[in-house]
Amino acid sequence: MTRAMRTPLSRRSFLAAGGGLATLAATGALSACGSGRSAGGSSAGAAMTMWGITGDQPFIEPTVTEWNAAHADSAISANYFGTNDYKDKIRTGISSAQAPTLVYTWGGGTMRSYVDAGLVQDLTGPLSGKSGFLDKVLPSVLDAGKVDGKTYAVPLSASAPVLFYYNHDVLTKVGIEQPKTWDDLMSAVPKIKSAGFAPISLGGGSKWPYLMWIEYLVDRIGGPDVFKRVLDNTEGAWSDPAVLQACQQIQDLISAGGFADGYASVSADTNADLALMATGRAAMLLQGAWAFDSIDGIAKNFVSDGKLAYGAFPAVSGGKGDPMNIAGNPSQFWAVSSKANPQQTSAAIDYFSSTLWTDPYTKRLADSGNIPPVKDASALLPKGFPQGVYEMIQKAPSFQMSWDLALSPAASAAFWTQLDLLFNKSSTPQKFADAMNKTIGK
């Protein structure tokens, strides 16, 4: 697929589409596969139902067609929904008699809630002897489908980490290098400001870009175990010194004028934050890999003229986190309903192992501009940014899921409120921690 055919993505549309630097356009009416099949429910026999997302239909549909042609007794009845419609439907459907056999999930806190409620199966045992297809997937991505070390879901889609974008022209004019450490970043702020540029573009009007800063800083300062303790419902986990230090460093950056003026009203969903960097008004931007395809529409030839630079989030002096750790969206996943009978469970595992991460499946993702989270995918990807981001994913010791997805729905709602207060300096690091500690276990 050529760049002209790609559809620019914000993080919201990335999640809605199921991921990637670009997505294939779904054409025609999106309806259930087959005729006369119910939209959900596990019945006797091995026939299966599947609920998926319309944005991923171009990748999923060929596997369903292939499977059904060879497995009439365990055919899949697939239904696709828009993201919000799916979330509404699965919220009640997952625990009903109409629960789909194959459950589409973003993982994280929602999947953990499914596990705690006994709504999805532990696939560790069923996958034994059939896990060859998962051996192709990068370990850091596989981990996002596990709860307490057990596999409850298998990856099905592309990966998109968050990284720093730089306007190389601005850095050259200012006379600075890409910051490798937090101290480098803080030192660069006054130099960039004095040269007449905004140091960092931030789409605070959309709120979700705030989370990228805290999740990376906490990782760099304390390592991935800090947030793992939050997910493990450890009492007082949000009061970890790494969280308090990260909050303080964010507010120190704000006080230093690190973000572009008016950042709290800049929209990331319309790529206004990306435009500030790509048009040379800001030097830096922390954003997801999904933003890349929007650059040419904002500043023609920005990439081809060598103006784009990118890299990992800076290291923090004395921090425990590996500077190669990344955060973002590892993948979307398939889980299997606990209501599936043994024949359906066996058929589901066979479907996964025979259709996911085969050469054709991986190539479909790569040809559409996505980054498949599999080993040795570099040769399938265009040179430059896609291969560079793939290398970051490949080498990452830890790929932490975006916190808003990883947290439970109740904790995530409180997180947005507290994060907004923190970035607007209406709160303090301690108040942030105290408020979030009240969400532990909810």
Describe it.
- The longest helix has 15 residues, at 241-255.
- The protein folds into two domains: 3-159 and 330-375, D-Maltodextrin-Binding Protein, domain 2 (3-Layer(aba) Sandwich), CATH 3.40.190; 160-327 and 402-437, D-Maltodextrin-Binding Protein, domain 2, CATH 3.40.190.10.
- Strand 4 (146-147) and strand 5 form a beta hairpin.
- It is 40% helix and 13% strand.
- Helix 9 (209-222) packs across helix 11 (241-255), helix 11 (241-255) packs across helix 19 (429-437) and helix 18 runs antiparallel to helix 19.
- The protein is built from 19 helices and 13 strands.
- It is an alpha/beta fold and 442 residues long.
- The radius of gyration is 22 Å and the shape is globular.
- The strands form three sheets. Strands 7, 8, 9, 10, 11 and 13 form a six-stranded mixed sheet that branches.
- It has helices at residues 11-17, 57-70, 83-93, 108-116, 124-127, 139-142, 168-174, 182-194, 209-222, 225-231, 241-255, 272-278, 295-298, 342-355, 359-367, 385-395, 403-406, 409-423, 429-437, and strands at 48-53, 76-81, 102-105, 146-147, 150-151, 154-155, 160-167, 198-201, 282-288, 308-311, 326-329, 333-336, 399-401.
- Residues 1-9 and 16-43 have low confidence and may be disordered.
